[in-house]
Amino acid sequence: MDTILKTAKSWLTDFFDTDVKSEVQKLIDTDPEELQDRFYKDMEFGTGGMRGMMGVGTNRINKYTLGKSTQGLSNYLKKTYQNEEIKVVIAYDCRHNSDTLARTVAEVFSANGIKVFLFSELRTTPELSFAVRHLKCHAGIVLTASHNPPEYNGYKVYWTDGGQIVPPQDGEIIAEINSLSFEDINFAADESLIELVDKEVDEAFFTESVKNGNFNADGKDDFKIVFTSLHGTSITAIPEVLKRAGYKNVTVIEEQAQPDGAFPTVKSPNPEEPEALSMAVAKAEEIGADMVVGTDPDSDRLGIAVRNLDGKIEIVNGNQAMILMTKFLLEKQKDKGFQGNEFIATTIVSTPMMEAMAKAYGVEFKTALTGFKWIGKMIKDFPQSKFVGGGEESFGYMVGDFVRDKDAVTSTLLACEIAAQAKANGSSFYKDLIQCYVDYGFYKEHLVSLTKKGISGAEEIKQMLKDFKDNPVESVAGSKVKWIEDYNTSTAKNVITGEEKHIDLPKANVLIYETEDGTRVAARPSGTEPKVKFYISTNAKLEKAEDFHKVNAELKVKIDRILSELKLG
User: Fold this and answer.
1) Active-site residue identified among 69, 146, 394, 537
2) pLDDT tens, 286-296?
3) Which of 13, 63, 308, 424 has its CA 20 to 30 A from that of 72?
4) How far apart are CA 129 and CA 124, in angstroms?
5) Is the pTM of this model over 0.85?
6) Is 146 a catalytic residue?
7) pLDDT tens digit string along 170-181?
8) Could you tell me which of 402, 373, 397, 407 has the C-alpha nearest to residue 386?
9) pLDDT at residue 375 is higher than 80
10) How far, in Å, are 46, 112, 293, 531 from residue 528 at the CA level?
11) Longest dimension (CA), the chain
12) Would you say 91 and 123 are in contact if contact means Cβ atoms under 8 Å apart?
């Protein structure tokens, strides 16, 4: 506690604003527990950059923690690109303080002699990723906490390729940041280096989104969409992109269309949560819509709901949406002719069905750690290969490579193209998905996400993962464990034969059990939230579409058994 108190008292110097000093002194005097949580560590970069609760303290998002990160990044850019005019672009979402924090970040860059393009108003994360290359920038920043609760904000860093920072840049940038004290931050802005941008970049981004996501599907005039931006940034892009692609029947949920960092109509602005889409689903049932689409605050994730076999609107999960979108893109590529260098990609905790589909089409399949930055890195690392599309189970997808991060704008258009064409063909999005199960195997997944907040929560997560590793599971739902993949040690071991393989991916705190029948259970801590996540994947043969309900029920029983066995229910 002495170290924490010393760190807190360092925020009482004249370098810090009066109101900040006042709040820190109040914490010292009256709330040692809160003081400890705010100062026991520095903000860290995770799978999505830096993200956390707003407030004063080293473990909070504020002017000083972002200022220090920006100063460190400025120093790194100047060392890396000597004798060049360095340029960065900055975007921000709807969250409380995002606009003022974005302005602070722009001022620090400019104070360091770096040219800044600052979006004049809130914009989507995919547009920021696109803008890095479009404006020929060396880096990009987006101020967002994605789908986290209202008290959070964050800072994602993009590199010259438009993708998030990855090794070695991330480690080198972090080392640069950690070498600084707060007093090293230069806040003295050079306004002549800050240029506001908006419509010109918007126009270029919309054009590319339509070019990559529009396949001239039949039946657009007869296709009804309900769209909700969940108070976030996608309202600035998705309605316009759908309109340009020829969709006329788009109903926007007006109560959720106004950007608002309080997210007043939802418990969480996360399209992974069914509750977030409830207002849009109700409207779709009321007006007889074919599809519901909802996006998270920075518009990189999308939730989709479509009519099931009984005609009711049902939410499809991220794995299901990814499968159908990838299948559609592969079919379109097949029509044009495969060149032999195409690949699709997903993450180690997403559905194994992606690999089965890649084999069926004869294209390369690549897998990455969780976090879309790793998929972006693949495109950079294999310039001779063509990225068709890919995604992850957490409701993110990327179409082609003009954006280098998950992109709910273009993916929304693609999902509508698939569904409109299916309806025109006498099928549906849902029926086409079931046909994928017949063709490639019926894979059914389930996610358990446990929230553990604060210092004690972090320790609890650490212990849960240690227990999961130290007490190996011998069988799952009656099937013997065959492989144990430990990404911390980069080893995959066949516990039946003793064979060991090297995992050629960066080290990560992930453990995966795979059984003889292909059931998989993965465990990992979230890189952006105080959560531990368990991913379950089961599979079975689906001989014909008419057996869907029966096999679906059998797989659900199997998942329930696994939850019970692992005490996750």
Assistant:
1) 146
2) 999 999 999 99
3) 13
4) 9
5) yes
6) yes
7) 989 989 999 999
8) 402
9) yes
10) 6, 29, 24, 8
11) 72
12) yes
